[in-house]
Amino acid sequence: MAYQLDALGRARGCNACAKLRRTMGKTFDIGLEVLAAGRSARSELALGLSHGSTGRGTFFLETFGCQMNEHDSEKVAGVLLARGYRQVETPDAASVILYNTCSIREKAAQKVFSRLGEFREKQHEGKIIGVLGCVAQQEGEGIFKRAPWVSLVCGSASYRKLPELLTELENGNHRVTGLETDTDETFETEVTRRDHPWRAYLTIIEGCDKACSYCVVPYTRGPERSRSSEAILRDVRQVADAGYTEVQLLGQTVNSYADPMARRMRFSELLLAVADVAGIRRVRFTTSHPKDFTQDIVDAIDAEPRLCEHVHLPVQSGSNRVLKEMQRTYTRPQYLEKIGMIRASKRPIAITTDIIVGFPGETDADFEETLSLLDEVRYDGIFSFKYSPRPNTRALSMRDAISEEEKSRRLAVLQDRQREIQIANNKSQIGESFEVLVSGKSRREGQWSGYTSSHKVMNFTSQAPALLGTYVQVTATDATPNSLQGEHVA
Ligand code: 5AD
Ligand code: SF4
């Protein structure tokens, strides 16, 4: 694909170097400083983590799953750092070991239990082991039975209780839980430790009020709660002051945002307000739900170049019948209307999607509909998954399960078809010039990489000495299904 596979879910930041970026009143961000700045990762870590340290202990935090989880972990780390904990890079060196978990598909959830199993032997070393996130919410106190060496089980809707839970642990309580989902509160932190050097993630809406029949998220993350536009804009000003030029607004259904403040800022107005903050050059947002995707969002992108030319609009299936069974709340023609709206924009907005193959009862004809949708939309990238039955979902009890073998076959066919589309899309961009935010440097001299506004990976050559974190104009000279190649035009 033209998008790195982490474009949606897996923004793997290097956890190695954290730095105290700035203190603003009571809130501050600790961010990853560029290795290119010539600083030692470890000394940065020491600098960041010694701030406010009261010698309480050390923590290791591993994150599985989506960008929301990655960002939740940044906030959880902030809570611990503010309390005087020091972050370490291995579980062995830590007094508190935390796993922020994902249960969107079965494999992800299994991984967590195998990781926890590695600590069976270590339970006598006095370490505190905690499970956070979706598996915590889904399995609840059952985790204590399966892995009795675990002391803390806390779902994302209860993160605001983390300081209390930590106090209980510090006072010697061996079993603490935060499992409520019935909340109208969001997770606000005084400190957020930022792992990503160039992009600041900001959650604007938590939870999900949709009820897709295959999905655990409404169950594990609770109902929709939007943060106030005031708090969001304060965060944006803060990250901009700390030197970030790109922000990505996050939510399971980011465009269902409903400002709780009296001013009731619409999502599109919020986008424009974020783009207007001094220092911000790029604004991204994910994930949009088709049902709530409205013309004013496209108008905002057309009007404001700082809003990136990219919309991630999961379709899940091209078959009306399957969409209905999935409870996606739109039909294929309604989805295609939204695509038409985006394609009618003045700017060339890239469109990506998520697709599930092998949903219960998906026939060959249904699958063909999904393939024909690919041909019709000609997505710039897709994330495709084999359907995975999940606990507490309506689809779990549906009949006509598709065999794993058939799911794999359909996935391969889908990905082959999409590959052809992407290579053609990307080749058609050869000769065009793109603004690229430089985020990587190859070991090979003069080779760099970064992202275009449309979130395509651009690998390019340049003789300039220090480009990381800067914006450069690059002309595309070649293309693969997953990236563009280019030359920096100085
Ligand atoms: N099985 C397979 N894929 C799933 N997704 C969500 N739930 C499931 C499931 N049970 C996919 C959807 C969603 C993406 C984040 O994960 O495509 O958009
Ligand atoms: Fe899950 Fe559907 Fe909500 Fe997305 S919109 S998080 S797929 S329930």
Features:
alpha/beta; Rossmann fold; Transcription Regulator spoIIAA; six-stranded parallel β-sheet; five-stranded mixed barrel; 22 strands; binds iron/sulfur cluster
Explain what this protein looks like in three dimensions.
- This protein folds into four domains: 3-178, Rossmann fold (3-Layer(aba) Sandwich), CATH 3.40.50; 198-308, Transcription Regulator spoIIAA; 318-427, Transcription Regulator spoIIAA (2-Layer Sandwich), CATH 3.30.750; 433-488, OB fold (Dihydrolipoamide Acetyltransferase, E2P) (Beta Barrel).
- It is built from 14 helices and 22 strands.
- It has helices at 41-50, 67-82, 106-117, 133-139, 142-146, 162-170, 217-221, 229-241, 267-275, 295-303, 320-325, 332-343, 364-377, 404-427; strands at 19-24, 27-31, 57-63, 85-87, 96-101, 128-132, 152-154, 176-178, 191-194, 199-203, 205-206, 225-226, 246-250, 282-286, 310-312, 350-357, 381-386, 433-441, 447-452, 457-461, 471-479, 484-488.
- Helix 13 runs parallel beside helix 14 (404-427).
- The longest helix is centred in the C-terminal third of the chain and has 24 residues, at 404-427.
- The protein starts with 18 loop residues before the first strand and ends with a strand.
- 5'-deoxyadenosine binds at residues 104-105, 214-215, 314, 316, 354, 356, 385, 387-388, 390.
- Residues 104-105, 214-215, 314, 316, 354, 356, 385, 387-388, 390 line the site of 5'-deoxyadenosine.
Query: How far is the N terminus from the C terminus?
Result: 28 Å
Poorly predicted runs are 1-28, 32-53
CATH superfamily of the largest domain: Methylthiotransferase, N-terminal domain
Listed once per kind, the bound small molecules are: 5'-deoxyadenosine, iron/sulfur cluster
Structural class: alpha/beta
How is the quaternary structure best described? single chain
Shape: globular
The top-level CATH class of the largest domain is: Alpha Beta
Radius of gyration: 22 Å
The helical percent reads 25-40%
Reported by name, the CATH topology of the largest domain is Rossmann fold
Main sheet: strand order = 4-3-5-6-7-8
Instruction: List how many beta strands DSSP finds.
Output: 22
What is the CATH architecture term of the largest domain? 3-Layer(aba) Sandwich
The description of the largest β-sheet is:
6 strands, parallel
Supply the number of helical segments.
14
Question: What value does the average pLDDT take?
Answer: 88
Estimated share of beta-strand residues: 15-25%
